[in-house]
Design brief:
Layout: E1 3-6, H1 10-35, H2 40-63, E2 69-72, E3 75-78, E4 86-89, E5 93-102, E6 114-122, E7 139-142, E8 145-148, H3 158-180
Antiparallel strand pairs: 1-2, 2-3, 3-4, 5-6, 6-8, 7-8
Helix pairs in contact: 1-2
Length: 181
Amino acid sequence: MNETWLRTNRRAIWFGCVPPLIIALVGGWIVFRATGHGGGWSRWLGAALVVVGSGIVVMLLRQLRRPRIAYRNGQVLFYLQSGSPIAVPANIVEAFFVGQGPAMLPGGSQNKHQSMNLVARLSQREAEWARREVKPALGQWYDGYVTVRGTWCEPLVPELIRRLNRRLTKVKSQIDRMDEG
C-alpha cells in the first residue's frame, strides 16, 4: 500500500470535471428529447455525448486518487508521467525544498505565469537517476533535481515541506537500521 506524501491538485481536477459533465448532461437532455419524437440520429448523438462526457469525468475522478509523490517499500514514487510511477530508492532522495518555475498552464501562457514548485534533490553520486523523461506539464527531471509543478499538486505550504523532509529522514533511518540488522 502506498503512503501518499504529496497529493494532486484536487481543485483543478474538480474544476476540470465541469465541462465534460455539462457535455454529458446536454447529451442526456438530447436523448430524453429525442426519445418521444423518433429522432434516430439525434438520439445517437446524445448517447455519444453522454458516453464521451461521462468517460472523461471518470478518467479525471480517477486522478483524484493518484498522488504526485508517494512512498512504498523503501522507494519514493514520483507520479510525473502516464502509467506507472518512477520509483527511486529513498536513500537516493536527499531533500525536498521549494523552487519557482513556469506554471505550464494550457493555452500558450506558459512563460507569463510562474508557480511555486516542489523540488526533490537526488544524490549526485547516483548518475543513473540524474535524468528521466516526464510529462512537462507535471514536472521536470534534470541534473539530479526532480521538479513537481505546484500548479498540479496540493498547495506547497512551509509545513508540507517540513513534513516531507521529516518523513524522508524517518524512512531513511528505518532503511539504514534494517540494513545494519
